[in-house]
Amino acid sequence: MNLQAFMAEDFMLNESFVRYCLQSNDEDVAFWNDWIARNPHKRPETEKAREWVLRLGVRLNASEKQEEFNKLRAMIETDRVQVTRRKNYLPYVAAAAMFAGAIVGAWLWKKQPHTERSAAMAYTTYHADSVRKQVILADGSTVILNCNSTLKVPASFNQQERHLILQGEALYDVQKDDKRPFTVTAGQATVQVLGTVFKVRAYLFENNVQVSLLSGKVNVAANNAATALLPGQMVKTSQGGLIAGTFDTARESDWRSGRLLFKDASLQEIANLLEYWYGVKVHVAPRNYQAIHFNGQFVNKSLSEVMASITYITNLKINISGNELFINQ
Q: Any idea where the domains of the chain sit in the sequence?
């Protein structure tokens, strides 16, 4: 399966691409975000196919989807699809293939060749749970992977390109290489650099991606918008594109060194810092709390160690479940 030769209608007939459009499978979303970022010349075709998927899928009811899918399968099996007919008819038939649902979806997926997809999905995956992890890449670049974060490094990294996929948060210190631009895909955002230090935050519970630049220069693209950042600037994704702003460079410097500082922190400030630092969604039970003024400094400490100190001094009750933290008194 040569994806380079695909036109919009070909992408529409690919079940993996359809699941990417519908955001219904994490592996497919990661694969197509990665592939499109590495093949920007195919973006017009993929965008056209995605638009057709979303538009035509609404027009067909369940019985129509099944009927059109059966027509498509019969045409393929009898080898009667003519090129001229294909261009006119395929967008409508493709909708049936895409939205046929559980009845025929599993059959089509099993029949598809997986050669290129399997090769492209050959990753080394790094995951940081309750403590940070430092990753040294093949090109000498380093990554500080924050808690509750996952970094995928393709097997082809540093051969013709340098591309990574992030879920969560990471700080990148990138070795300069003019011939191999360094790109990171996080959700719908793509960051491209040559050599710089920048941070990407893309936790699922926050529903946006934030890119902060510490040094050098980066280009950020998301939701049909693009911008270049200078040191001290940041952007956050939104449905309308990108929102520009600045960030606290001193706080980011502390984050990079692993120094978590509470200075006369209130309950809400404690919750905000824990959420920012450890990549967990913090819930504070609604009630009347006694005033809290917490002070403390922690260097490269795990969430459980910090929680133990906070609960001992403040008498707060803190429980963690998965990637969520609950505070009560």
A: 3-118, 122-251, 258-328
Architecture in CATH of 122-251: Sandwich (2.60)
> By CB neighbour count within 10 A (0-12 exposed, 13-18 middle, 19+ buried), where does 291 fall?
exposed
3-state secondary structure 223-292: CCEEEEECCCEEEEEECCEEEEEECCHHHHHHHHHCEEEEEEECHHHHHHHHHHHHCCEEEECCCCCCCC
Cα gap 300→211, rounded to integer Å:
23
> Which residues fall within 8 angstroms of residue 27, CB to CB, at 6 or more apart?
121
pTM: 0.62
- Model pLDDT for residues 235-277, shown as the tens digit of each residue: 999 887 899 999 999 999 999 999 999 999 999 999 999 999 9
Positive or negative: CA dihedral 268, 269, 270, 271: positive
Cross-strand partners of 115: none
Report the CATH number of the 258-328 domain: 3.55.50.30
- Residue that has been written with the tokens 């649902």 in this structure: 101
Most confident of the following: 55-59, 138-142, 287-291: 138-142
